[in-house]
Amino acid sequence: MGEVEQEKSLHVPDRDDGELQHPRHHPHNNNNSSSSDVSLALLTRLMAHFASERDWDKLHSPRNLLLALVGEVGEVSEIFQWKDEVPKGLPDWSVEEKEHLGEELSDVLLYLLRLADICRIDLGDAALKKLKKKALKYPVEKCKGLSHKYTAYKNEELEAREV
């Protein structure tokens, strides 16, 4: 199904009857599909439509969206605040805890997309460019398994040149 069909078919039901669950997590689906089926462009359009329908465009200034985004990041951090180190996959978390985390992470994503849209930043393109820059800053052969800041690798290069 293309993005246009997804957008037309996407609706938010009045109650959660299970259709809001991601296919990967739906109890009746053995499919291991990923969430990559939903694009940033689709979510951006849906958020713009959502805000427009409610006449919220006038409220969605970059400043207001940034403050809302920071508030949502704070809510994500509260979830982890008093937990010890958490293993990947959250194996010890209840379904409810995972759903709550998913909701808060979704809030962060949606505010981030809305902020980028309002600022006329193509977030997908910007992220790809940033990944390319990071690959140059952190070459695999110099930083694999290490967590140093990229300046540590630059300093090593300078010291090697001086010798």
Description:
The protein is an all-alpha fold. It folds into 2 domains: 119 residues, Helix Hairpins, CATH 1.10.287; 32 residues, no CATH class. Helices cover 59% and strands 0% of the residues. The chain is built from 7 helices and no strands. The termini are far apart.
Question: Helix/strand-derived class?
Answer: mainly alpha
Beta-strand content? under 5%
Radius of gyration: 20 Å
Shape: globular
Number of strands: 0
For CATH, the homologous superfamily of the largest domain is named as MazG-like
Number of helices, where a helix is a run of at least 4 consecutive DSSP H or I residues: 7
CATH domain class name of the largest domain: Mainly Alpha
CATH topology of the largest domain: Helix Hairpins
Helix-residue proportion? 55-70%
The CATH level-2 architecture of the largest domain is identified as Orthogonal Bundle
